[in-house]
Design brief:
Number of strands: 8
Radius of gyration: 23 Å
Helix content: 40-55%
Number of domains: 1
Mean pLDDT: 79
Low-confidence stretches: 1-5
Largest sheet: 3 strands, antiparallel
């Protein structure tokens, strides 16, 4: 991949996006995302098992328990921060899509790898985020490479 500074050609950008999507699909198993990290449910299960199976003559020390609760609290805060950031990103994309209505845009067509331009005539909102439409075809807001005002 030839990189000129911090920019990529539309073809290189498409190739990179397709590679990322292909890799992300390998993380799926039976339609569900496989996670290589422990979630809060896993953490709580481990803590309960540890408490149930501790040696009565040498119970879990306060320091260890406080440390584990602090880790759980951090996990909760990171999960909430992730949820908040995801909502912010979605709201940003919604605002961006709305601002594109009636504007001339160029998008990278994922199928052909070519840049296509047109005037945004419609915006739709779905689970995958907002989509813009022109010339009867719908594109993800993520595929926009250029925006121009109409003359």
């Amino acid at each position: 991949m030839a990189m000129d500074g911090a920019t990529m050609s539309p073809a290189e950008l498409l190739k990179t996006r397709l590679e990322v999507e292909a890799f992300n699909k390998t993380l799926m198993k039976n339609g569900r995302r496989v996670q290589n990290t422990l979630g809060k449910e896993d953490f709580l299960k481990l803590l309960i098992v540890q408490l149930e199976n501790q040696d009565p003559t040498s119970p879990l020390e306060d320091k260890e328990f406080i440390s584990q609760m602090a880790q759980f609290s951090s996990l909760e805060q990171m999960t909430e921060m992730n949820r908040t950031l995801s909502n912010l990103i979605m709201n940003y994309k919604l605002g961006l899509a709305s601002s594109l209505l009636g504007k001339e845009v160029e998008v990278l067509d994922r199928v052909s790898g070519q840049t296509i331009s047109g005037t945004v005539s419609e915006i739709t909102f779905g689970e995958e985020g907002p989509r813009i439409s022109f010339n009867g075809i719908s594109y993800s807001v993520d595929d926009v490479t250029k925006v121009s005002s109409q003359d």
